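Task: complex structure prediction.
Instruction: return structure tokens for all chains below.
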Amino acid sequence: ETGVTQTPRHLVMGMTNKKSLKCEQHLGHNAMYWYKQSAKKPLELMFVYSLEERVENNSVPSRFSPECPNSSHLFLHLHTLQPEDSALYLCASSQDGQGAQQYFGPGTRLTVT
Amino acid sequence: GDSVTQMEGPVTLSEEAFLTINCTYTATGYPSLFWYVQYPGEGLQLLLKATKADDKGSNKGFEATYRKETTSFHLEKGSVQVSDSAVYFCALFNYGGATNKLIFGTGTLLAVQP
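Output:
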């Protein structure tokens, strides 16, 4: 596999469920990102990891919990979500934590019922 | 703070028509500017970039020129194809700025009809 992959591609979950999104990058990059993409809104940066250390957390609710076990993998753990959390969640990577040139995965379409 | 403003979509064109998608920005200092494209069902891909004033980024027939005097980075293509149908995002990265991260516009949907 090449580039940035995300699983699952689609996820439907109830508000009391716990689920995780997975992202894997095969580019040898050192930084990884989670974004939220909602209709009619700019992409929202949620978390940034550089060399497996979290370097940015943009006031994201605690029901979203990121994990970066190594520079190739990034997870987003979800619990007790709200319907307004339904969105496309995009993972990206870059060579370093100041990466303007980011490479995106295809996203996970999340629906919270 | 830094921001990007794009023209509202959708933009609907016939094949071989000329395309312009407007983008203006607000930023301190000298940001780098980008256009990303998102094809249906996919993530964003970098389309082109420009890192200083008067630079022209180009790729796949698309062009954009970094205009500091008008704080703009409009995307153009002389002859669009059906395969260009996608959402286009203008973005800036302000190295050393207050937010040291990519700032995106809201995206502009382009639909090209045969």
